[in-house]
Amino acid sequence: MKKILVLYAHPAQRHSRVNSAMAARAQTLDDITFVDLYAEYPRFKIDVEREQQRLLQHDVIVLQFPMMWYSTPSLLKEWQDLVLEYGFAYGEGGDKLAGKTLALAISTGGSKDAFSTTGYQQHQLPDFLTPLRQTAHLCQLHCLPPYVLFGALSETNDADLNRHVDCYCQYLGGLRDQRLPADSIGTLPYFEAHQLTTLLETGA
Amino acid sequence: MTGVLLQAFIYLMAAVIAVPLAKRLGLGSVLGYLMAGIVIGPLLGFVGDETQEIQHVAEFGVVMMLFLVGLELEPRALWAMRHKLLGLGGLQVALTTAVITALAMALGQVWSISLAIGLVFSLSSTAIVLQSLNEKGWMKTDGGQSSFSVLLFQDIAVIPMLALIPLLALPELQEAAHSAGESHGSEMSLLTGLAGWQAAVVTLAAVAAVVVGGHFLSRPLFQFVALAKLREVFTAAALLLVIGIALLMSLVGLSPALGTFLAGVVLANSEFRHELESDIDPFKGLLLGLFFITVGAGINFDILFANVGTVLSLTITLIAIKAGVLLLLAKVFKLGKSDTWLFALSLAQAGEFGFVLLALTVQNSVIPAALADTLLLVVAFSMLLTPLLFICYEKFLLPRMETEQQSGNDAIPEKAKIIIAGTGRYGQIINRMLLSSGYETVVLDISAETIDRVARFGVQTYYGDAARPDLLHAAGLHEADMLIVAIDDRERTREIVQHARRERPDIHIVARAFDRLDVYKLFQDGANDIIRETFDSAVRAGRSALEGLNMHPFEAEKVVHAFVESDKSAMRQLAEVYDPEIPAHENTAYVELSKRVRDETETAVRSSQSANKGLVDRAWRPPASTDL
Q1: What would the pLDDT profile of B493-547 be if each residue is shown by its tens digit?
Q2: How many angstroms separate the most distant Cα atoms in chain A?
Q3: Is the pLDDT of residue B177 over 70?
Q4: pLDDT tens, B49-76?
């Protein structure tokens, strides 16, 4: 069994539909540490020591956030800036995170169609995640493709939403119980709820 | 009684008219006093023989000045300048004495008279030089510090000189004195009838008493006095201290000026330093002024007119020789260009100790009285010319050299100096933050108990009422970069802010305000940052309440932000209708507007459902699904 740490970042949770529901359910799972960063650090005064300890105590770090202006919410960026210190996460002696896994759970406002070279976002979704992937690489973290919900604001009906939340919990459980086929997942650019069931079945 | 009043009236009147006039003309206060003395003495004849006696009293101003100089100088700083003190000072006295002695012998005087003249003229005027250096703000320059070192050494050197001069007595003059049957009342002394080693022990014990007593006894004494909370008693205690030490020193035959200087250095680290400074300062100023007046008034115009050529040429020769020696020393000690000239010109006169030594030489039959009278005029004249030399330096030499130096030197910004008034629960926090960020602070508090309490935790605080202008000045208002008023007395806070703003239009003032109305008043008084003392903690308590009611902490933070911002804007609006003449609750415009802005604040905080206007709701609000 792997130890799972979910770092959740959402600055306006009362406007949130998808992420709030995901967070509410994820917190009920056994043996998963769930952290609401905006609740712990509402004034952006991140306790670096404590955050680093948390990272050391877990095997898989899941970043859950709505994509905002092609990046993470600002507090999660602050968290990266402060916690992934030189000598801890990278650089000389900075191998404390080596071998751990980084997983991403992202929702986007834009539709799936928009994220293509011909869509209005002009790029594939993984292109926007290059900084995070490179961060993981520099920190010797194994980075999994993101679990994504497209069109979270307008296109998702309640059924889709529920399925996305259910599958999120299964995904976290799968990471915890090592039921995910790392090889077949690694080749995907990203995956959505409907793909997850298949992935879990092949892994089992 | 009337006679004393009349004299006091004449002296004060002369000072009150001449000094501001001299300052206005850019001549400095010292020259003003000297002129005043000349006018009321030799010129108009209002005062006469009594100037000699008054001068003895007025010399106490020098004693007080050295006490104040000592207060400014921590023991560590004194130790750091030991090389300058001994090297510069020692060489200056030795070389000047040698050159002048040689010249006097060349002019046909016997060696003993020549040596006495050399000793008298080697000294400079502590009173004029320090007063002028302080007035012009040159005390902290290299040249000023070097001058100060030399003056300090001279004050020490006077002691052996006083012992040496009687040994130079001329037999023929002594006989004349004896036959005239003069007997000088000997001064009271602890040393009468003691053997040499016993005298030495007593002398050392007295110095030790000043150092040890100053260090250990002064604190409980001043604490005790401060508890009475009567200002004049504290002033009395300060005077008692200075006079007591001066008395002790003269009883053992040491220079009172030196003794009080030592006491000043010992007390330089005391929390009562600024209070002592501001209490002694006016006495020092008046006595020194009086001293300068007596120098002017004491000039004997009859002798002067009889020998005007001799006196003038001697004075100019003296200044040239002294300046020459000083220039040489400045070269050896590698002073900067402008510092070299400041050093040389400032110390080129003879000093007030010259009067004392000359009187002694006549008493001890070292120098004939007629010659001494001429020499006395030379001393006075050289002192009279000193302010002119300072003006010469300031107006002609300094501007030229400053432009030369500007290209070479990088400006080193001096560390910001901060005065904090009040070290209670409020000021302490500010002080700790500033100290931990590496700033230097001067902390004042009116309560001796508080000072004692915080001292136990290692916080250095000075005793005194910051609402007193003189104390603020002693604490360094004129050089400070920032003043923080952290006391909990609304009226005093305003007095301090008003005074500081008047004196220093450029200083940054952070003020603690009691409430909203206080903020308006302090704003009008000119404070830069005005902090309501309970506002921030109340806001934090409100935030805790919201969090306790299970509001998401980041939402609570947004509410706080919205509330604080709209409250600030409300304050700005209300400040405009606030009228200090009308109580706020009777000011209709104020009451109406405050009702309106309060409602506005509430809407600003509460989420507005209709539009993206509410400060809280606006943040990270996604487009509605219908907009997409």
Answers
A1: 999 999 999 889 999 999 999 988 899 999 889 999 999 999 999 999 999 999 9
A2: 49
A3: no
A4: 677 778 778 878 878 888 887 887 777 8
Closest among B524, B514, B462, B520 to B492, alpha carbons compared: B514
Residue B481 lies in a domain: yes
Residue of A nearest to B557 (CA): A42
Query: Tokens 């100088």 correspond to what residue?
Result: B73
d(CA B214, CA B391): 39
B542 lies in some domain: yes
Residue A180 is given by DSSP the state S
Residue of B286, B270, B272 lying closest to B234 (CA atoms):
B272
CATH number for position B464? 3.40.50.720
Residues B596 and B485 in one domain: no
Q: Could you say which of A15, A42, A43 has the minimum Cβ distance to residue B622?
A: A15
Q: Which helix (H) or strand (E) holds A66?
A: strand A60-66
Residues of B within 8 A of A12 (CB-CB) are 619-622
> What are φ and ψ of residue B572, in 5° steps?
-60, -40
Distance from CA of B538 to the nearest CA of A (A): 17
For CA atoms B517, B520, B524, B527, the dihedral sign is positive
CA-to-CA distance for B217 and B222, rounded, in angstroms?
A: 9
Residue where the block lists tokens 């001329």: B170
B272 touches B218 (CB < 8 A)? yes
Cα–Cα distance, B120 to B538 (Å, whole number):
71
Residues in CB range of B597: below 8 A, 6 or more apart: B566, B569, B570, B573, B574
Cβ–Cβ under 8 Å, residues B618 and B558 = no
Q: Give the distance, in angstroms, between the CA of residue B228 and the centroid of all CA atoms in the same chain.
A: 26
Looking at the fold, whether B511 and B553 belong to one and the same domain comes out as no
For an interface test with A, give the residue of B539, B551, B554, B627 to mutate (most A CBs within 10 A): B554
Q: Which band of pLDDT confidence, cut at 50, 70 and 90, is reported for residue B609?
A: very low
> B531, B547, B564: which is the final residue of a domain?
B531
Domain tally for chain B? 3
CB contact (8 A) between residue A153 and residue B620: no
Give the minimum alpha-carbon distance from B557 to chain A in angstroms, rounded to a whole number.
6
Tokens of A28: 């009920």
How far off is chain B from A47, nearest CA to CA, in Å? 16
Indicate whether B111 and B69 sit together in one domain.
Answer: yes
State how far the Cα of B321 lies from the Cα of B98, in Å rounded to an integer. 11
Instruction: Looking at the complex, report in whole angstroms how far the Cα of residue B430 sits from the nearest Cα belonging to chain A.
Output: 21
Whether residues B35 and B157 share a domain: the answer is yes
C-alpha dist (Å) from residue B514 to B468, B472, B492: 21, 22, 12
Higher pLDDT, residue B289 or A19: A19
CB nearest B553 (choices: A14, A42, A68): A42
Count of positions (residues) in chain A: 204
Residue B375 to residue B350: CA distance in whole angstroms? 10
Does residue B176 form part of some domain?
A: no
- ipTM beyond 0.90? no
Q: Is the separation of the CB atoms in A20 and A168 below 8 Å?
A: no
Same domain, B339 and B438: no
Residue B541 main-chain phi, psi, to 5 deg: -65, -40
What span, in angstroms and rounded, lies between the C-alpha atoms of B136 and B26? 11
Cα–Cα dist B571/B565, whole Å: 10
Rounded to the nearest angstrom, the gap between the alpha carbon of residue B114 and the centroid of all alpha carbons in its chain is: 38
Paired sense of beta strands B482-485 and B508-513, if any: parallel
What whole-number distance in Å separates Cα of residue B75 and Cα of residue B71?
A: 10
Structure tokens at B616: 């809280």
**Do the chains contact at A15 and B556, CB–CB below 8 Å?**
no
Average pLDDT rounded to a whole number, residues B139-157: 85
B181 occurs within a structural domain:
no
Residues from A contacting B (CB-CB < 8 Å) are 11-15, 38-40, 42-43, 68, 109, 153-154
